[in-house]
Amino acid sequence: RENNRETKPQNLTRVSEFFLTGLSDDLELQPLLFGLFLSMYLVSVLGNLLIVLAVSSDPHLHTPMYFFLSNLSLADIGFTSTTIPKMIVDIQTQSRVISYVGCLTQMSFFMLFGCLDSLLLAAMAYDRFVAICHPLRYLVIMNPRLCGLLVLASLFISVLVSQMHNSIVLQLTYFKDVEISHFFCDPSQLLNLACSDTFTNNVVMYFVGAISGFLPISGIFFSYYKIVSSILRIPSTGGKYKAFSTCGSHLSVVCLFYGTGLGVYLSSAVSTSPRKGAVASVVYTVVTPMLNPFIYSLRNRDIQRAMQRLLSKIV
Questions:
Q1: 3-state SS record for the chain
Q2: Which of 85, 202, 252, 264 is deepest in the core (most CB within 10 A)?
Q3: Which pTM value belongs to this model?
């Protein structure tokens, strides 16, 4: 294993595994990290699963907004399951080695669910725009066919983005090192280790970033620009509050998802320590998917009632 960590470029055929540095080398911290991440992962999966079950079991919640919410919860379960279980196992077994195929698979699913999260948040913003700006035509515009198409299109684009990224990595022939300064196979970290021509990689990376980041954010900004303009025209304060409260939860999740992602990007650009970037990544890979169910359930009485009915049936 140690021999694999030499710094000279290695032929891809000889690189069968990578070494993940993790969050900390301190042995005393490992049990604490294990307990913390295991509990956060369980809360995240159970919370999002409860949202999915509550929406599917309650006929009152069979509306476009909750349809998108349940799909977002499924994407969040996939997103956290891509990175955290492997990290928990690594802490427990004191092994930080990941095979080349395992690394590629993890990176592929990370890109897939991350992009899907982003596109679903954009679809939810469009749903809120139609609900507030065109309330009388809401059910006609946001029909089940369109909602299904939006989710399928988001999934198709996410798979496309993921496979495009994979095609770049598969073309890499040499690596400077096999040590990845992260707790998972971060796409940018792996490309930084490559010795091949970076121009093509950068072009595709910018293209991937535009599809999975810039376009959804632009759509969300445009939707909320229209929403705010529409709300400001409402004469009564009560009417304004009622209209804005319908998109309060979504706006909170959007700020949390993109705010933490941007924070990690900026911190990694400013900081010279890759490990600090890895610690910051915990926020959007674990904390954000864990908080989403709480944000929606705490701010939404319909979800609260559906969850109470679901839990009473289970109990």
A1: CHHHHCCCCEEHHHCCEEEECCCCCCHHHHHHHHHHHHHHHHHHHHHHHHHHHHHHHCHHHCCHHHHHHHHHHHHHHHHHHHHHHHHHHHHHHCCCEEEHHHHHHHHHHHHHHHHHHHHHHHHHHHHHHHHHHCHHHHHHHCCHHHHHHHHHHHHHHHHHHHHHHHHHHHHCCEECCCEECCCCCCHHHHHHCECCCHHHHHHHHHHHHHHHHHHHHHHHHHHHHHHHHHHHCCCCHHHHHHHHHCCHHHHHHHHHHHHHHHHHHHHHHHCCCHHHHHHHHHHHHHHHHHHHHHHHHHHCHHHHHHHHHHHHHHC
A2: 264
A3: 0.86
